[in-house]
Amino acid sequence: MTQKLRWGVIGCAGIAIRSVIPGIQASDTGELTAIASRGIAKAEETAAKLGIAKAYGSYEEILADPDIDAIYIPLPNHLHMEWSIRAMEAGKHVLCEKPVAMNAQEAQRMADTAARTGKHLAEAFMYRHHPRYAEIKAIIDSGEIGELRALHGTFTFNNASDAANVRYRREWGGGSLYDVGCYPISAARLILGAEPEAATVHALISPEHDNVDMMATGILEFPGSVALSFDCGMWADFRNTLEILGTNGRIEVPNAFVGDAAYYVFTKDGKREVKQPELNQYALQADAFARSVWGEQAERFTPADAVANMKVIDACLESAYSRQRITL
Questions:
Q1: Number of neighbours of residue 66 by Cβ within 10 angstroms
Q2: What is the CA angle 24-26-32, rounded to 5?
Q3: What is the per-residue pLDDT across 290-317, written as a single tens digit (0 to 9) for each?
Q4: How far is 327 from 314, CA to CA, in rounded Å?
C-alpha cells in the first residue's frame, strides 16, 4: 500500500508512548509524522526515542502543520473536548483517547463539530477492533449458549501509590469509572446492541486521591431483563475479564481488553478454547480509522456511540456520588 494517513500526536502520555504510537507505526495505513508537547525538550526526547520525524513545543504548532491528516489525543480527560474540537476545526481527523470527554454534553459538542467540519472523530477503544468480538457475537447469535441472562466485566489495577498521577485529579476527569470502568460498559453495549435503562454504582471515594472513585462496583440494567455487573478500580489487584452467561452455556474472556486474546466457550459438551492470532489491537484501530477516513469502509463506531457511552458513565458517576439508582 502506498497511501498513508499522516498522524500527529498531541501529548506524550504513557498510553501513547507504550501502545498507540507503536501501533500506528506497525499499521498498514499509518505514518507517524510529528509529536507535540507543552515544551520542545519533551517533544524532541520522545520523537528521538520513537523515530518520529518532527517535534513541536506547542499543540498549536502541530495543528498548523499541513502535512498532518489526523491527530491522536491522549491528553488528560478534561482537555479532550477542547483539543479535539480545535484539531477538527484545523482540518484534522481525530482519534481521541477514552473516555472521549468529561460528560455526554461535551461529547455531543465534539460530535457536532465532526458533523459540521466533515472530519472523522473516533474514541480510542482499541479492543473493539480485534476480530474476536465479532466471533463472540456470532457465537451468541448462533444460539450455542442459549438466551443471554447476564454479563460480568472487570478492569482493575493498583496504582494508588502514584499520588501525582492525573488519574487522581477529580477536576481533570480522574477516577476508575472514567479510566477503566468505561471498558466493560462499552463491551456490554457492544455485545447486547442496546443501551442500559438504569445504573446503580457503589464506589470507594478516596480523600487521599482528591475524592475520585478509586474502586467502583455497579450494575447496568439493560432491556430484556439482562444486566451487566461490573467492577473497576485503581487500588486493587490487576484483572480484566468478561463473562457472558446464557441459559445453556457461557463465554469467558480472561483478558477482555488487554493481554492474550484467547477465550473459552462452555456448553453441555464441555469447554472449548478459541485461540486467537497475535494481533496488535492498536494497529487494527489505526487501520480501521484510516479506511473510514478514506471512505473504504463505514465507521463501525460513530461519534454518536461515544456520546451514548458517556451518558452511561455520567449516570454511573451520579449514582456513585449520590448513592442512588439513576435512570437513563
A1: 8
A2: 40
A3: 999 999 999 999 999 999 999 999 999 9
A4: 11
Strand ranges inside the chain, DSSP E: 5-10, 30-36, 54-56, 70-73, 93-97, 121-124, 148-158, 198-206, 212-222, 226-233, 235-246, 249-253, 263-267, 270-274, 326-327
**What does the DSSP assignment read for 36-92?**
E-SSHHHHHHHHHHHT-SEEESSHHHHHT-TT--EEEE-S-GGGHHHHHHHHHHTT-
Whole-number Å distance between alpha carbons of 299 and 191: 17
- Angstrom distance (rounded) from CA 122 to CA 302: 7
Instruction: Check residue 257 and report its DSSP letter.
Output: S
| Exposed e or buried b per residue across 79-105, where buried means at least 16 C-beta atoms within 10 angstroms of its C-beta | bbbbbbbbbbebebbbbbbbbbbbbbe
DSSP-assigned states of every residue in 149-172: EEEEEEEEEE-TT-TT-GGG-GGG
pLDDT digits (tens, 9 = 90+) for 201-242: 999 999 999 999 999 999 999 999 999 999 999 999 999 999
5, 289 Cβ separation under 8 angstroms: yes
- Residues labelled as active-site residues: 98
Place of cell 468529561: 102
